[in-house]
């Protein structure tokens, strides 16, 4: 996944979801995202920066910033993707993770908990309540936390990063099931292999081969959902894995279950 087009917010109402486990590959979207960890731990990467979030921590991810979220053990988190009021969107926090010892954390957390209650119970005018609480959340951030206003350099970087990931995925869409070398990929983008590896890691936060593996795993999951009766060797081949063993090992490492076990959850 590169630009996330599913699970999207609208300008009228945010997208909200509670996760019991998270496994996303690097992606970006036009909405601002708020991640609130309710229990356990969650790893969040923003470009090349990696953060370990714990219960009560809050992360604010600006629009079009390449990021991913994943857990190594059971956890619960609440995610909000929203379009705040126009004058509340153009910020990058110096410290995107807001922990319990951060000033005003309790007030920000209270806004999130009230958003969760409104969204879950859906009383009269809950849409208005959720949007009002979100704008108060962002207003409190802007007035009290150090942040960058999105100037030309920051905007250029986020645009460059999202464009780079889009171009990578365009290449993989065409070639993911074919054998190719790092030199081939680098040459496609007019880079030397060493420079390509460095710029990829700086932009995405993973090595190219790590990302390529995750990309193929997503293709495998998509193929299984579309072809529920296909055997595992067919799924592996369709996703570009050389053999079932490497497919099973990669799948279990990322999803913490076998492909066969995962397929049962799709039925």
Report on this model:
With 267 residues, the protein is an alpha+beta fold. The chain has two domains: 15-149, Regulatory protein AraC (Jelly Rolls), CATH 2.60.120; 176-266, Arc Repressor Mutant, subunit A (Orthogonal Bundle), CATH 1.10.10. It contains nine helices and ten strands. The protein has helices at 105-121, 126-144, 152-175, 182-188, 193-204, 208-226, 232-238, 244-255, 259-266, and strands spanning 15-19, 32-39, 41-46, 49-54, 58-61, 67-70, 76-82, 91-93, 97-98, 147-149. The strands form three sheets. The protein has a five-stranded antiparallel β-sheet, covered by helices on one side. β3 (41-46) and β4 (49-54) form a beta hairpin. α1 packs antiparallel against α2. It is globular and about 50 Å long.
Shape: globular
End-to-end Cα distance: 23 Å
**Would you count the extended β strands for me?**
10
Task: Give the mean pLDDT.
Answer: 86
Q: Provide a count of the helices.
A: 9
Structural class call reads: alpha+beta
How many structural domains does the protein architecture include?
Answer: 2
Q: What amount of the residues lies in strands?
A: 15-25%
Order of strands in the sheet with most strands: 1-7-2-5-9
Q: Report the helical percentage.
A: 40-55%
What would you say the CATH architecture of the largest domain is? Sandwich
- CATH topology of the largest domain, by name, is Jelly Rolls
**Radius of gyration, taken over Cα atoms and rounded to an integer in Å:** 20 Å
The top level CATH class name of the largest domain: Mainly Beta
């Amino acid at each position: 996944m590169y630009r996330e087009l599913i699970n999207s917010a609208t300008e009228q109402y945010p997208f909200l979801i509670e996760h019991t486990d998270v496994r996303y590959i690097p992606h970006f979207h036009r909405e601002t995202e708020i991640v609130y960890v309710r229990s356990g731990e969650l790893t969040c990467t923003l470009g090349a920066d990696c953060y370990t979030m714990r219960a009560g921590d809050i992360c604010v991810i600006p629009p079009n910033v390449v990021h991913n979220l994943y857990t190594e053990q059971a956890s619960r988190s609440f995610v909000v993707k929203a379009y705040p009021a126009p004058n509340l969107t153009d910020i990058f926090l110096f410290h995107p993770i807001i922990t319990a010892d951060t000033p005003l954390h309790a007030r920000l957390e209270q806004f999130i908990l009230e958003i969760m209650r409104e969204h879950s119970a859906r009383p009269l005018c809950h849409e208005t309540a959720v949007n009002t609480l979100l704008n108060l959340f962002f207003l409190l951030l802007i007035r009290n936390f150090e942040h960058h206003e999105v100037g030309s350099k920051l905007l250029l970087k986020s645009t460059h990063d999202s464009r780079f990931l889009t171009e990578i995925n365009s290449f993989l869409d065409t070639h993911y099931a074919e054998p190719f070398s790092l030199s081939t990929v680098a040459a496609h983008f007019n880079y030397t292999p060493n420079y390509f590896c460095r710029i990829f890691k700086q932009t995405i936060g993973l090595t190219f081969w790590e990302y390529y593996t995750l990309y193929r795993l997503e293709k495998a999951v998509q193929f299984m959902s579309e072809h529920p009766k296909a055997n595992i060797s067919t799924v592996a081949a369709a996703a570009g894995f050389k053999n079932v063993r490497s497919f099973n090992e990669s799948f279990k490492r990322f999803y913490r279950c076998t492909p066969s076990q995962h397929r049962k959850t799709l039925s």
